[in-house]
Write a structure and sequence with these properties.
Elements (H helix, E strand, L loop, with lengths): L13 E6 L2 E6 L4 H6 L6 E2 L6 E2 L12 E4 L4 E3 L10 E3 L7
Parallel strand pairs: 1-7
Antiparallel strand pairs: 1-2, 3-4, 5-6, 5-7
Bound molecules: FE2/S2 (inorganic) cluster.
FE2/S2 (inorganic) cluster binds next to loops.
Length: 96
């Protein structure tokens, strides 16, 4: 069950991306954090405790929201705009 439930921008243009290899759709104007948490119950697992994380500061300061692209580029989910075709991987599961 997703952590976030969209209450605004439901009719904005869909933006296709993959999350750990699974096809997903966010909405135009989403950050990666919004797009991911509208699909999943956690953003990633902590590399220290293994506990689920959903970001903390939501403003690019705490580094609790790192995700990566399949290319290996690391991104802060809270301050990165979703772009069509992004292939996002999280520490929850690696893409096949
Ligand atoms: S939630 Fe703090 S940097 Fe993204």
């Amino acid at each position: 069950m997703p952590l976030l439930h969209r209450i605004v921008r439901k009719d904005h243009q869909a933006v296709a991306f993959t999350l750990d290899g699974k096809p997903c759709a966010g909405r135009e104007g989403d950050t990666l954090l919004t797009a991911i948490l509208a699909q999943a119950e956690a953003l990633r697992l902590s590399e220290f405790s293994g506990e689920p994380r959903a970001g903390f500061c939501q403003m690019g300061a705490c580094q609790d929201c790192w995700v990566a692209l399949e290319s290996g580029e690391r991104l802060r989910a809270c301050s990165t705009a979703l772009v069509a075709g992004m292939r996002i991987v999280t520490s929850r599961r690696r893409a096949a």
